[in-house]
Amino acid sequence: AQSVTQPDIHITVSEGASLELRCNYSYGATPYLFWYVQSPGQGLQLLLKYFSGDTLVQGIKGFEAEFKRSQSSFNLRKPSVHWSDAAEYFCAVGGFGNEKLTFGTGTRLTIIP
Amino acid sequence: ETGVTQTPRHLVMGMTNKKSLKCEQHLGHNAMYWYKQSAKKPLELMFVYNFKEQTENNSVPSRFSPECPNSSHLFLHLHTLQPEDSALYLCASSQATNSNQPQHFGDGTRLSIL
Question: Which of B43, B56, B101 to mutate to test the interface with A (most CBs of A within 10 A)?
Fold first, then answer.
């Protein structure tokens, strides 16, 4: 069965600093990978997705993620965070078969001035 | 604006009440989902509908009753709920139920059971 691990429950970053959120997946074939963001009081918003091709994918709000098959990872990055990036971030994995989209447990991001 | 609208945004109800949550999507999608999001727990998939037909019930108690009259509307009827049912209920839609399709979420209904 597929699975997603987000090792960091909570990360605190200074405004303007760079950010990397970790995501490791387990899937028997080529995965479909997603990052979502959930701001307080809102639902999940799709940041970016990886299906195939270039392993570095660009998303909305200045985020990018890199697919590394050898490490089974799909880490989310942003060069300079803004206070409005404070939110919970979820990584998810899907595939071609009958599997359901599987979400990680999320990483809460706090931004300090 | 995500294209998925949920009402109400907040709901407080007693354990003996009956209420319904509503979800409407304007994305032309064929699949719709109900999720439960509780504090400190992973996102829980409850129900999946594809072209109005239920394709998955993830062992959800019968006090939760979904209804999908068409591909654009999804309801969750609630009755005789328990305190542990207090949570954020999220509706989502996607083009198809394949997990390679991105899901689009509403802002959720925050449910509190007294």
Answer: B43
CA distances from B47 to A10, B32, B33 (A): 29, 8, 6
Q: What does the pLDDT look like over A45-80, one tens digit per residue? A: 999 999 888 899 999 999 999 999 999 999 999 999
Residues of B in contact with A94 (CB under 8 A): 98-101
Quick one: pLDDT at residue A98?
Answer: 65
Q: Are A68 and A55 in contact (CB under 8 A)?
A: yes
Whose tokens are 């108690």? That residue is B61
Contact A49 B102 (CB under 8 A): yes
The token pair at B78 is 């609630």
Taking CA–CA distances from B10, the nearest residue in chain A reads A41
SS3 B80: coil
Q: Which amino acid makes up residue A63?
A: F
- Nearest neighbour of B90 by CB, restricted to A43, A93, A101: A43
For A85-109, the pLDDT digits (tens) are: 999 999 999 887 667 889 999 999 9
